[in-house]
Amino acid sequence: MNDVVRRAAGGAGVMTIYKSEAGRRELLDHYRRVLDAWPIPAEHVRVPTREGETFVHACGPSDAPPLVLLHGSGANASMWRGDVPTWSRHFRTYAVDLVGEPGLSAPSRPALDSDAVSLWLDDVLRGLGIADAAFVGTSLGGWTALDYAIRRPERVTRLALICPGGVGRQKVGWIFKALLTGPFRRGGLRESAMAVAGLDGERDRQALDAVVLTFTHFNPRREKLPVFPDDALRGLTMPVLVIAGDRDAMIDSRQTVRRVRECVAHATVNLLPGTGHAIFGQAEPIAEFLRA
What we know:
The chain is of the alpha/beta class. It has helices at 2-9, 14-17, 21-36, 84-87, 116-128, 140-151, 174-178, 186-197, 205-217, 230-234, 253-263, 283-291; strands spanning 42-47, 54-59, 66-70, 92-96, 133-138, 156-162, 240-245, 268-272.
């Protein structure tokens, strides 16, 4: 993995997404350890794109149907490590490190209010030899998957979205309050993550540790995600699954549910009670949807 880390460190703009070189190294070293301890055999693929090299963590039978996984902001492919053992039994899973996020892809950040993100994904799929695929995306990754399904409907066979951006109103995020207003204590950041993401201090200790480490050293995107108009949502014809938490402090999940039900009549929508922005334990329901 050392060559992957070196590749990710290079390129213009890398220090615009990290607060320091030492912090970048600490984050990537942690990520490398997670990848080395992956629960099932995996292949590391580096795909050249117009936005720079994109890192993909591939698992499952090479001849199985493709499933593309797109993580959220401030994350990387490691967020899927609890899910891929389930999904890779029937799919070739491709966990993509989004460019501009704290993973092993290029630091570039394509404009969200344009077709730049979909063009980047065109390059990723081309590099992987994928004509069409099912997609699972969460938060920013959910926005990315939905944007691609709207712009490239012929390339998306099924669409599973977890607390997706771009449908319900994006609330004033904890990131902007706790992370972008100056120095902060790690303890305060941990408390903010617990409150806003709906994480439990004991049960979700590993996830909380990762959040604290990431946002101590990483500069997230500051802009709000563009909201998709009703007509764009109505144009979705592939099977769609939306999972949201009713206590999401970052995205108006009730508005997300209402708009999906109104505009995507064939969609399956699950609003989870007592759940915040961080949603776990959905591998089996999503697998059932993907295989239906």
